[in-house]
Structures are given as C-alpha cells and as structure tokens.
Write a structure and sequence with these properties.
This protein is mainly beta. The protein has a single domain, classed as Jelly Rolls. About 10% of the residues lie in helices and about 45% in strands. The chain is built from two helices and 14 strands. The protein has helices at about 1-20, 30-35; strands at about 35-40, 65-70, 70-80, 85-90, 100-110, 115-125, 135-145, 150-160, 170-175, 180-190, 190-195, 200-205, 215-220, 225-239. Strands 1-4-13-6-7-8-9 form a seven-stranded antiparallel beta sheet, with no helix packed on it. A seven-stranded antiparallel beta sheet has the order 2-3-14-5-10-11-12, with no helix packed on it. Strand 11 (about 190-195) and strand 12 (about 200-205) form a beta hairpin. The longest helix has 18 residues, at about 1-20. It is globular and about 45 Å long. The relative contact order is 0.22. The model is unreliable at about 5-20 (pLDDT under 50).
Length: about 240
C-alpha cells in the first residue's frame, strides 16, 4: 500500500515537471521587453488565468506563453480571434521625432490555421480620455495561407485612412521562411518603414494617422479557426 502511494506521488511529480514551462523572463534578453509590456490572452480583456499585468512576468508562464529550449519565447493560441500577445506600454504618434522601433527574430508555425494570423502590430490606443480614439490597427504583419494567388506569404496590412471605413493596402513581404527571420518596424516623422532580413520592403507616409496615439504589439493573433505558434529568438522595442 505504501509503495503504491509512493508510486502515485512520483508519477504526479514527474508529470508536473513535464507539463510545466520555464518563464521567458528567466532569460536576460527578454527582460527589457517584458518589463514594459502586458500579456493579453485569450482575449484583450484581462483573464487572470492567462493574462499578465505590465511588468509582472517573474517566474511566469502558461500554456499559451512560455520558454522553449531555454532559447525561445513562445506564443501559442487556438480559436477564431483569440490571441496571446504582448502589448507594449509606451504610446506615441506617427509624427514622432524620437524614432520608434520594434525588431523581432521570429519563426512561424501556422499549424492548422485556416486563413491568417498576425504576429506584429501597430495599434491605436482606444482607451484615452478626451483624445481621438479608434479601436483599429494602423499595421498588422501577418501570415496568409493564400492571398492574391500566393501561398504562405508574409504580408503588411496597412490602414489607408483614419476612420472605421478606411480601406487597407496589402504589401507582400515575401514567402514565409522555414527558419528564423528578422522583421524591423520603424516609425519616424510620419514615415513607416518595414525591413525583412535587412531589406526595406515598406517606406510609406502615414501622416493621415497623426491624430492617434499608438503602441506596438507582438505575439500571435488568429483571424480564423485553428491554431498557430510563434517563436521569438529576439524581441526588442526602442522608444
């Protein structure tokens, strides 16, 4: 009887170890971005099971956000319009004279996502009082299963006006690499630039968006059913 109970305890202990995840905050390279961000999952509203408040990441992980192989910060999610994303605290306008940059070295796993998912964003702040607000992104960097006859490409989806009826421009950033690749987004004096592996892909005047405050986001946000996973080898934000 004692031996049977002992085996149960050992089984539970090792099962817990297998299910447990390391915290991305345990790596120094991820501490700067985690100290200025909050985790949103599986929706934008705070969920105490899977969300995290600004800077509160010490020893924290869950099944949607964890460290893999002691190297990679992982965002994983399933379900239409669900997300596991970091929202960065600092807000700014596109007319800024202090260049804003987000750079990521990422690897994408669409898994069984049926249409598209977002992994980097510039989003307008819709929570400010007595200021113009809109609950829309200026930019989404996405993986599309198929768009304009091209399969498994990365696209920049850029809003072309400042109201809810605005159209979008979809710019092809190239076929999704099978390995890690680098994406850098910069905003400076109303100009949005996007670089992929050091090559400039977008150089666009976005001054029409000037009345809104914005913030960067990074992670995985599904636009359809299915699941997707993103590994970050590097993620930095410069304000």
């Amino acid at each position: 009887m004692i031996m049977a109970e002992f085996k149960k305890v050992i089984f539970f202990f090792f099962t817990t170890l297998l299910l447990a995840h390391d915290s991305p905050y345990s790596l120094d390279k991820f501490k700067p971005v985690l100290e200025i961000s909050k985790l949103q999952a599986p929706k934008s509203s705070f969920n105490p099971l899977y969300s995290r408040k600004y800077g509160d990441f010490a020893d924290y992980s869950n099944k949607y956000f964890y460290l893999q192989d002691r190297k990679y910060m992982v965002f994983y999610m399933c379900g239409n319009h669900n997300r596991s994303e970091l929202r960065f605290k600092n807000i700014w306008k596109v007319g800024t004279e202090n260049k804003k940059e987000m750079e990521a070295e990422v690897k994408l796993f669409p898994l069984d996502e049926k249409k598209e998912f977002t992994f980097l964003q510039i989003h307008a702040d819709s929570t400010l009082k007595n200021m113009p607000t809109i609950n829309k992104p200026l930019l989404r960097v996405v993986w599309y299963k198929k768009l304009k006859g091209k399969r498994s490409h990365i696209w920049a989806i850029i809003r072309l006006g400042d109201d809810i009826f605005s159209r979008y421009q979809k710019i092809d950033l190239g076929v999704m690499p099978k390995s890690f690749f680098d994406v850098k987004i910069s905003v400076y004096k109303n100009v949005l630039k996007i670089f992929v592996n050091g090559v400039e892909k977008v150089n666009m005047d976005v001054g029409y968006w000037g009345k809104y405050y914005n913030y960067f986001k990074a992670g995985v946000y599904l636009q359809d059913d299915g699941c997707a996973k993103v590994l970050f080898k590097k993620l930095t934000v410069k304000d």
